[in-house]
Design goal:
Four Helix Bundle (Hemerythrin (Met), subunit A), Tetracycline Repressor, domain 2, about 300 residues, membrane, transmembrane helix
Length: about 300
């Protein structure tokens, strides 16, 4: 999209939207936020120490609000490319339901509120990590990496991988090897998850001028990289058992899920299908994989505490 078109979207001086509460909720990317909340909560539960249940709830809420704030800032800045992508055209800013300035103010307000509240109610390490997560997603990823390099998802994935570390810090007041492993699982999961999406949304990214891997390196190279990362995902999933903070039962479950991930990635690599059905299947399975891995860690932690 030309610079003049971007300026037209962002120049909403004097216009007051008629946005509903639902429109502002959409700015928070609730589907993405739900996974963020879950992984952060698991980080809180797995961490040593404990928080008052009310403070634990507030900490989880702050992480959720912070993630939503980052989403709002992303939608503010990306309104121009969202307007030309079929997957994002109906988002509140490009659709005209929320003005760009409203989205910016909303995102900045929620960012400050969530960071300050988490710092005061839990600890300032957690608050600082949340602030860094918002900054990394809104500035490093959205404003810089996304439009400048096909490695945007690889590097930018750090923002989405930080919530369990923030949750861990909120409970324990520290960052440990275990929390870094949780980070690593999500960090390695992000490229094959989003590149699978990019394979069947190549036209969208091409129209928007976003250098996603399939548009820059080509379909064949992207499929090979998806397969390599999928092996790394499978290995990272069993690290909690290898490092001794999850049981052999979790390890077996994670290994089975990892083999499933590799199998779906192998189909993406070897099956020629113009409809990109294998990529769509991998994308769907990858969401299930991440939820199942963290759910298994959560269940095991709860069972262990009950039995202690």
């Amino acid at each position: 999209m030309a610079l003049a078109q971007r300026e037209q979207i962002l120049d909403d001086t004097g216009r007051l939207s008629e946005a509903t509460a639902g429109d502002f909720l959409s700015l928070l990317k609730p589907r993405v936020m739900s996974l963020v909340i879950f992984t952060a909560f698991v980080g809180q539960i797995l961490a040593p120490g404990s928080l008052n249940p009310i403070l634990a709830f507030i900490a989880t809420l702050c992480i959720a609000v912070g993630a939503g704030a980052a989403g709002a800032l992303n939608m503010w800045y990306d309104a121009d490319i969202d307007a030309v992508m079929s997957r994002t055209q109906k988002r509140p800013v490009p659709d005209g339901r929320v003005t760009a300035k409203e989205a910016l103010a909303f995102g900045l307000t929620l960012s400050a509120f969530s960071v300050a509240t988490l710092g005061l109610m839990a600890n300032w390490l957690a608050g600082g990590l949340l602030a860094f997560t918002i900054f990394f997603y809104a500035v490093i990823y959205t404003m810089w990496l996304k439009r400048s390099t096909p490695q945007n998802i690889v590097i930018g994935g750090a923002a989405g991988a930080l919530p369990p570390v923030v949750g861990w810090a909120a409970t324990s007041g520290a960052v440990s090897l275990e929390s870094i492993v949780l980070f690593l699982i999500i960090f390695l999961w992000t490229p094959p998850h989003f590149w699978a999406l990019a394979l069947f949304k190549t036209g969208d990214y091409e129209r928007a001028g976003v250098p996603m891997m399939p548009n820059v390196a080509g379909e064949a190279s992207t499929k090979r990289q998806i397969f390599i990362y999928s092996i790394l995902v499978a290995v990272s999933g069993i690290l909690p058992t290898a490092l001794g903070f999850a049981s052999i039962y979790y390890g077996a479950f994670a290994a089975a899920l990892g083999l499933g991930f590799i199998w779906y990635a192998w189909r993406v690599l070897v099956v020629a299908d113009e409809t990109m059905k294998p990529a769509k299947s991998l994308f769907g399975f990858s969401v299930l994989y991440l939820f199942a891995i963290f759910a298994a860690l959560l269940v095991e932690a709860i069972v262990t505490r009950i039995g202690a």
